[in-house]
Design goal:
Pfam family, one: Rieske
InterPro entries: Rieske_2Fe-2S, Rieske_2Fe-2S_sf
Number of strands: 10
Low-confidence stretches: none
Strand content: 35-45%
CATH class: Mainly Beta
Protein name: Naphthalene 1,2-dioxygenase system ferredoxin subunit
CATH topology: Rieske Iron-sulfur Protein
Keywords: 2Fe-2S, Dioxygenase, Iron, Iron-sulfur, Metal-binding, Oxidoreductase
CATH architecture: 3-layer Sandwich
Largest sheet: 4 strands, antiparallel
Oligomer: single chain
Strand order of the largest sheet: 2-3-4-8
GO molecular function: 2 iron, 2 sulfur cluster binding; dioxygenase activity; metal ion binding
Number of helices: 0
Shape: globular
Amino acid sequence: MTADTDLWLDVAAVDDIPDGDALGACAAGHALTLYRVEGEVFATADLCTHGAARMCDGFLEGYETECPLHQGRFDIRSGKALNAPLTDDIRTYPVRCDGGRVLVRFE
């Protein structure tokens, strides 16, 4: 991959992600959760770092997502674990929107 555009994969339509909510997606073998807050889109790994819970089934309030099983919260902008029982941050991915599509960059 030599061109910058080769690093970005199309994973969803922006309009498929309700504002203030999350959507599960998969790209390049990665399970993701896409979030839309005030029109801005973010992406994290879909699996909670504490246990086998899908973050796309969690709850979103502002820029914080809460695990549906453990009530641990992450900041979707940085992946930072915000409270117990979480001890590890969640992976985040760079996102850009182009022509109504969500593009995620994988390294």
